[in-house]
Amino acid sequence: MLPPTSFPQARSVKDLYASGGKGSLRYVFLHGNHARPSQPTDACIEGKVRLFNRRGEIVFDDDPARNSSHYRFAEGRCVSVNDQPEAYIPARMLVQTLLKNIQVPGLIVAEVPKDEGEVQPGQDDSFLYVAILVTGSSGVDSIPPQDGNYLDTMMRCLVPRFVVAISQRSDDYLPGDAKNLCHEIADSIMKVTEDSSDLLAFLDLYEKRYIHKPSTSPEAVLESCLLHIMKMPFELSSSIRYRLICY
């Protein structure tokens, strides 16, 4: 990798993320990775954007009646959502930039201060969590139906519980001893889950997709899933500096 001084001058993270909270924004991939924007400046990205509070409750959904929405871009800027011009998008600059920089398919969860989320008054959380799912993009082949089902299930069943668990350990949300952190998070998720049928359904999908060991316990499957997520958290300033995120 080239040293930072070899890169052209990066635009300020403040262009995307004004207040910063505890340093720069932190995010993780639950599926997929970064992808350099390759679509034309006029493009359509298929996906889903949800905003969660610290209790895992949805405080914004781009369209609750749809599994996915269509984000239309013109000259690199999102101009409509599901054909609604200038539709509301929480933390618009950040979200529209991440939509263009996520691999198809991909799912990301990012921690944002409440004022960046621009939610209605009354939300008492200092931080909110935006989940961005990308399942299609102009010029990219359609994903297999089983991938779409897997990611939709992950968004519904794992993301809210993950948000609750990670919000309680925000200061530990850094590279390091990921294995122990994942054990703590998995234990927390399994203990607080009253009706775990949907979570177990997701873990069954994950096990069949990645582990292929039917005797593995749900707790072990969840830890394996979380380790894949938590072993590499990202930080927005560094990602822009090293051109993982371009805009």
Automatic annotation (TrEMBL):
Q: What is this protein called?
A: Uncharacterized protein
